[in-house]
């Protein structure tokens, strides 16, 4: 089962969860803004895995961060879906504001 580290405040995290749920992909959602334990687990990954280097360099948090059964971490959940032959879904009628300070995205 995939673990998703995210936040309900993050539009990209909500989109990731929406897609996984709709495609029946088994996941456990760990909200880093609701639990210090979840935040600490995420920060251990973020501070030690090279996949986050580029994201940290551009001041990105790195959410959502997905951890597969094999322990491999990925942050590009859209490519994960596309590799499975699945289309990225959007919720109808839902408008999401960008979550960065410059309003250009998360």
What attributes does this structure have?
106 residues; alpha+beta; 4-stranded mixed β-sheet
Describe the protein's architecture and organization:
It is built from 4 helices and 4 strands; from the N terminus they run E-H-E-H-H-E-E-H. The mean pLDDT is 90. The chain has helices at 11-22, 36-48, 53-57, 77-83, and strands spanning 2-6, 27-31, 65-67, 73-74. With 106 residues, it is of the alpha+beta class. It is globular.
Write the layout of secondary structure elements.
Blueprint: E1 2-6, H1 11-22, E2 27-31, H2 36-48, H3 53-57, E3 65-67, E4 73-74, H4 77-83
Parallel strand pairs: 1-2
Antiparallel strand pairs: 1-3, 3-4
Q: Could you give a quick summary of the protein structure above?
A:
The chain is α+β, with helices and mostly antiparallel strands.
Largest sheet: 4 strands, mixed
Principal-axes shape call:
globular
Class derived from helix and strand content: alpha+beta
Average of pLDDT: 90
Summarize the helix and strand pattern as letters. EHEHHEEH
**Strand adjacency order, main sheet:** 2-1-3-4
Q: Roughly how much helix do the residues carry, as a percent range? A: 25-40%
- Low-confidence sequence ranges: none
How much strand content do the residues show? 5-15%
**Number of H/I helices:** 4
Extended strand count = 4
Tell me the distance between the termini: 25 Å
Rg is 13 Å
């Amino acid at each position: 089962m995939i673990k998703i580290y995210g936040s309900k405040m993050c539009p990209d995290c909500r989109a990731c969860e929406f897609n996984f749920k709709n495609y029946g992909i088994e996941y456990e959602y760990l909200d880093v803004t609701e639990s210090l334990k979840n935040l600490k687990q995420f920060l251990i990954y973020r501070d030690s895995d090279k996949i986050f280097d580029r994201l940290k360099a551009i001041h990105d948090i790195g959410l959502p961060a997905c951890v597969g059964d094999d322990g491999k971490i990925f942050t590009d959940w859209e490519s994960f879906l596309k590799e499975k032959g699945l289309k990225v879904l959007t919720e109808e009628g839902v408008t999401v504001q960008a979550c960065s300070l410059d309003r250009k995205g998360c």
